[in-house]
Design goal:
single chain; alpha/beta; Nucleotidyltransferase, domain 5; six-stranded mixed β-sheet; 8 helices; 42% helix; 13% strand; globular; IS402-like_dom
Length: 276
């Protein structure tokens, strides 16, 4: 890494030790016909992605001492499309679970959705309007474990129903984390989700909010996914839907989650924008 003044979003040496070896192995497999490897500093590429994630800046506003859009976006899109971001995320999640004394893969997940307003440049073909919340944009669906670690992410037009998103989340969970046998959802998820869960071997349980207590009351078993959404909002790039492709929005969610996990694994923290 170059000798520049660090940004709060930069990975520390201890954090890079968790991510770097995976990317070094990834680079080693990408040797050109001439026998050469890329010369870019991958740690700085990661720092640029995390800087944009945390600050929400446009590509053209990346600081001059970080890699600029052409190279940063090249790697962001490449890692998005070849699954590198998801692979690193899953590796970190397994380490975080082991550190907490859990098995690598969970047995239960909590599922919920979040409506996100889209910026004006986001293609209309991939956005819609949430009929219930009246939010124009996209819908972000998450399945998280009991520690608040993300197991599956789905991003769709906001006009897509919670039912359809829930089914897609269950499909991802069943395919990639077959140890999961229980999914907790709210009443917005209809019977079709429960039926699909039964087909995939996942018991879908509706956990209803209590109407007897005034004010905010954390809902047993389901509260953790709502907390995750709140934590993700510390990454300004996720506060509004800026990505042209839903796949990029999924990748942004994974990078934000990775930033949270490396801090969890190393016992470090990043100052929030509220303290700026």
């Amino acid at each position: 890494m170059s000798a520049r003044k660090p940004y709060p979003s930069d990975v520390t040496d201890e954090q890079w030790a968790l991510i770097g070896p995976f990317l070094d192995a990834w680079r080693a497999k990408r040797v050109s016909v001439a026998g050469r490897q890329g010369e870019q500093d991958l740690r700085e590429i990661v720092n640029a992605i995390l800087y944009q994630s945390r600050t929400g800046c446009q590509w053209a506003y990346l600081p001059h001492d970080l890699p600029q859009k052409p190279v940063t976006f090249y790697y962001f899109a490449l890692w998005r499309d070849d699954g590198t971001d998801a692979a690193i995320h899953d590796l970190l999640r397994c380490q975080a679970r082991e550190k907490a004394g859990r098995r690598e893969d969970p047995s239960a997940v909590a599922i919920d959705t979040q409506s996100i307003r889209a910026a004006n440049h986001v293609p209309a073909a991939t956005t819609g309007k949430d009929a219930g919340k009246k939010v124009p944009g996209r819908e972000r669906g998450l399945a998280v474990d009991a520690l608040g670690l993300i197991i599956a992410v789905v991003v769709t037009a906001a006009s897509v129903t919670d039912n359809a998103i829930g089914i897609e989340l269950l499909d991802q969970v069943a395919q990639h984390t077959p140890t999961v046998t229980v999914a907790w959802v709210d009443a917005g998820f209809k019977q079709d989700v429960g039926v699909y869960g039964a087909v995939t071997g996942i018991d879908v349980q509706v956990v209803k909010r209590s109407d007897t207590k005034p004010g905010f009351v954390p809902v047993k078993k389901r509260w953790i996914v709502e907390q995750v959404y709140g934590t993700l909002m510390l990454h300004r790039r996720l506060v509004r839907e800026y990505e042209s492709k839903p796949a990029s929005s999924v990748s942004r969610t994974l990078w934000a989650s990775m930033a949270n996990m490396v801090r969890r694994l190393t016992g470090t923290s990043t100052p929030t924008w509220r303290n700026a």
